[in-house]
Amino acid sequence: MSEDSQIFVIKTTANQERSVAMTLSRIAKKEKLDIRAILAPDELKGYVLVEAPKSGIVELAIQTIPHARALVKGSSSIAEIEHFLKPKPIVTGIKEG
Amino acid sequence: MSEKVCRHCLRVLDGQTCPVCGTSDLAEEWSGLVIILDTERSEIAKKLGVDIPDRFALKVR
Ligand SMILES: [Zn+2]
């Protein structure tokens, strides 16, 4: 059974949010880390949000990422960050398989 | 930024046509970035209705 998602916050150098998000996604894929989603809203300067089950996964992953400065202590729930997801993208309705 | 975004599904694209929608109706100005890696377990993917791992914009102009 998969563990519940939590939201962890990475502090980044200003204006490097997207680059940190992209690098983190590359590392997560390569190392097969259980990082489920990465969010870099423009409203949130200097931070990137990461959806993962445990902070250790994120902490480890950011060690080698330039401009990822630190993992903020604690975690948030999806509900707390939900407002960043609006307006909703138009869904395609296309499913795999 | 040089990458463009499909106006229909908000996918961030490398090329000039969205491979999912088949459209070339792209936005050059966009904001916010969401990278969905695990559609099965991501709550964010569920909220956004994303069922294929990819990069998405939050807003297009
Ligand atoms: Zn599209």
From TrEMBL, chain B:
<keyword id="KW-0804">Transcription</keyword>
<dbReference type="GO" id="GO:0006355">
    <property type="term" value="P:regulation of DNA-templated transcription"/>
</dbReference>
<feature type="binding site">
    <location>
        <position position="18"/>
    </location>
    <ligand>
        <name>Zn(2+)</name>
    </ligand>
</feature>
<comment type="subunit">
    <text>Heterodimer composed of Spt4 and Spt5.</text>
</comment>
<feature type="domain" description="Spt4/RpoE2 zinc finger">
    <location>
        <begin position="3"/>
        <end position="61"/>
    </location>
</feature>
<comment type="similarity">
    <text>Belongs to the archaeal Spt4 family.</text>
</comment>
<protein>
    <recommendedName>
        <fullName>Transcription elongation factor Spt4</fullName>
    </recommendedName>
</protein>
<feature type="binding site">
    <location>
        <position position="21"/>
    </location>
    <ligand>
        <name>Zn(2+)</name>
    </ligand>
</feature>
<feature type="binding site">
    <location>
        <position position="6"/>
    </location>
    <ligand>
        <name>Zn(2+)</name>
    </ligand>
</feature>
<dbReference type="GO" id="GO:0000428">
    <property type="term" value="C:DNA-directed RNA polymerase complex"/>
</dbReference>
<dbReference type="InterPro" id="IPR038589">
    <property type="entry name" value="Spt4_dom_sf"/>
</dbReference>
<keyword id="KW-0479">Metal-binding</keyword>
<dbReference type="Pfam" id="PF06093">
    <property type="entry name" value="Spt4"/>
</dbReference>
<dbReference type="InterPro" id="IPR007178">
    <property type="entry name" value="Spt4_arch"/>
</dbReference>
<keyword id="KW-0240">DNA-directed RNA polymerase</keyword>
<feature type="binding site">
    <location>
        <position position="9"/>
    </location>
    <ligand>
        <name>Zn(2+)</name>
    </ligand>
</feature>
<keyword id="KW-0805">Transcription regulation</keyword>
<dbReference type="InterPro" id="IPR022800">
    <property type="entry name" value="Spt4/RpoE2_Znf"/>
</dbReference>
<dbReference type="GO" id="GO:0008270">
    <property type="term" value="F:zinc ion binding"/>
</dbReference>
<dbReference type="InterPro" id="IPR029040">
    <property type="entry name" value="RPABC4/Spt4"/>
</dbReference>
<comment type="function">
    <text>Stimulates transcription elongation.</text>
</comment>
<keyword id="KW-0862">Zinc</keyword>
